C-alpha cells in the first residue's frame, strides 16, 4: 500500500506499539555505583522518582541496543554497519541503503568538514516499572581467584516494565 494524499499532504505510515516485559528478580539496566553509598563496591538499578515512589527503568538507549543485538543475532541477512573510530569519535558507514542498522536506527557521522545524519525511523521511550518498587539489596563475593574473596553488593527488583515505540514505515 502506498501512502495516501490527504489535503495535499502525504500520510505517513507509522507502526506504534506498547511493550510490557515481565522482569521478576531482575536488574535490567544498572546505573553503576552511587555516590554516598556505605560501600564502594555496589551496583544500583536505574530508577526515577515520582513523589515518594521509586520506579526502576531501562533507558531508551539500552532498549534500542537490545533490539540492535537481537536483529543481528536472529537474522542471518541483517547487515551491520562497520564502526570506525578516530581519536575520540566513533561512527558507522552512514549508508542506509547498504546497512540495515543504519537504515532502522539512524546515525550521525560528525567529522571536521561535514556532518551527515539520518533520524532514526525507530523511536522508543524508556521501559518503566508499572508499579513503584524498593529494590532489594543483595550481597555476593567474587571468589574465583587466589587470595581473599572480593565482596560486592547489587540491587534487583521484580516488576513488569512498560514502554512505547514507533516505527516510521515510510522512512525504512
Question: Keywords for this structure?
Answer:
172 residues, mainly beta, 9-stranded mixed β-sheet, two-stranded antiparallel ribbon, globular
Task: Describe, in short, the structure shown.
The protein has 172 residues and is mainly β.
Main beta sheet, described?
9 strands, mixed
Q: Can you count the beta strands?
A: 15
Give Rg in angstroms: 21 Å
Low-confidence stretches: none
The averaged pLDDT comes out at 87
The best one-word shape is: globular
Q: Helix share of residues?
A: 10-25%
Distance between the termini: 14 Å
Summed up, the helix count is: 2
Beta content comes to over 45%
Q: N-to-C SSE series?
A: EEEEEEEHEEHEEEEEE
Alpha-beta classification:
mainly beta
What does this structure look like?
This protein has 2 helices and 15 strands. By secondary structure, the chain is mainly beta. The strands form 4 sheets. Strands 3, 4, 5, 6, 7, 12, 13, 14 and 15 form a 9-stranded mixed beta sheet that branches.
Amino acid at each position: 500500500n502506498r501512502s495516501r494524499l490527504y489535503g495535499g499532504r502525504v500520510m505517513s505510515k507509522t507502526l506504534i506499539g506498547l511493550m510490557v516485559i515481565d522482569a521478576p528478580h531482575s536488574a535490567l539496566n544498572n546505573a553503576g555505583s552511587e555516590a554516598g553509598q556505605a560501600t564502594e563496591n555496589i551496583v544500583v538499578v536505574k530508577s526515577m522518582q515520582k513523589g515518594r515512589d521509586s520506579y526502576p527503568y531501562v533507558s531508551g538507549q539500552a532498549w534500542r541496543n537490545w533490539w540492535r543485538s537481537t536483529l543481528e543475532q536472529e537474522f542471518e541477512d541483517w547487515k551491520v554497519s562497520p564502526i570506525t573510530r578516530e581519536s575520540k569519535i566513533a561512527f558507522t558507514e552512514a549508508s542506509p541503503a547498504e546497512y540495515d542498522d543504519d537504515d532502522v536506527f539512524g546515525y550521525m557521522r560528525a567529522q571536521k568538514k561535514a556532518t551527515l545524519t539520518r533520524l532514526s525511523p525507530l523511536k522508543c521511550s524508556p521501559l518503566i516499572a508499572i508499579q513503584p518498587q524498593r529494590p532489594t539489596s543483595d550481597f555476593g563475593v567474587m571468589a574465583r581467584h587466589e587470595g581473599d574473596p572480593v565482596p560486592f553488593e547489587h540491587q534487583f527488583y521484580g516488576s513488569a516494565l512498560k514502554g512505547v515505540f514507533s516505527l516510521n514505515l515510510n522512512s525504512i
